[in-house]
Amino acid sequence: MVFYGIPLIEAGLIVFLIGPLYAFLGMTLVIWGSSRANTVRDASNYAGLLILPLLIIVISSLIGLAVINIYNVLLIALFFS
Question: Measured in Å, how far apart are the chain's first and last C-alpha atoms?
Fold first, then answer.
C-alpha cells in the first residue's frame, strides 16, 4: 500500500527510527553550537542549518532524484546513529 508516494513500511521507519535519531543529533548539535556562539542570533543560525539535510532528502525524493526504499532508510538511520 502506498501513501502519497511513500510506502507505509518506509514511512513508519522514517517516523519511528530516523525521527528520534535526528532529533537527538539535532539537540546535540544545537547545544554544541550554542556553547560556541557569541550571541543568540548565532546560536539560532546554527540551529537553522540542521533542517537543510532533511530538505535535500525530501525534495530530491519528490522530484525523483532519490528513491526512498527500506534499504536507503536503514542506511540513513545507520548514518545518524
Answer: 28
